[in-house]
């Protein structure tokens, strides 16, 4: 299996081993060992693994590692949203937010994860977006609603996009929403 033996958690320069230790993650799972080295190289990935196999960590750890590097955007927008995680349901989104926050807990700097799944009201979520999050997690419909309301902008700052449970996202008919929010 590619990279499994070579991949310890030491490759995450700005994420202290404390986060994975706190979670009791002694070693990468199979999907993490396969996906993380490629993601760290900046490759686009399409990954599939069974439920509970650690897919959130497989994208979450390299995503956080990427965010610890300086933003690629000009300094005027460098403080804007750099990563977007799209999920098919609020329940999955809340689980993803929880995992990302746990993994980010001991980062070299504060990484802010905005939860667009927790509140149902668009207006109630605006303050969360005004706190200049690094990562936004939400359903395509909700993200699109914020883009339309101009409470969120991705155009000049977005560097990373994750479609979590892409099969469900696309089969729920979110395809058009996803296209519109990216263009
Ligand atoms: N390297 C690891 N070592 C031990 N436990 C891990 C590791 N990575 C993830 N886990 C744990 O495994 C459980 C499942 O992880 P996760 O939710 O990421 O799986 P998943 O593949 O995304 O599942 P689903 O398809 O249901 O969303 C979680 O409790 C998580 O903390």
UniProtKB/TrEMBL annotation:
Domain of life per record: Eukaryota
UniProt-recorded name of the protein: RNA helicase
MF GO annotations: ATP binding; hydrolase activity; RNA binding; RNA helicase activity
InterPro entries in alphabetical order: DEAD/DEAH_box_helicase_dom, DEAD_box_RNA_helicase, Helicase_ATP-bd, P-loop_NTPase
Organism, scientific name: Accipiter nisus (Eurasian sparrowhawk)
Span of domain Helicase ATP-binding: 36-183
Protein EC: 3.6.4.13
Xref: Pfam families: DEAD
Catalysed reaction, written as an equation: ATP + H2O = ADP + phosphate + H(+)
Transmembrane regions listed in the UniProt entry: none
Listed SUPFAM superfamilies: P-loop containing nucleoside triphosphate hydrolases
Gene Ontology cellular component annotations, sorted alphabetically: cytosol
Keyword annotations: ATP-binding, Helicase, Hydrolase, Nucleotide-binding, RNA-binding
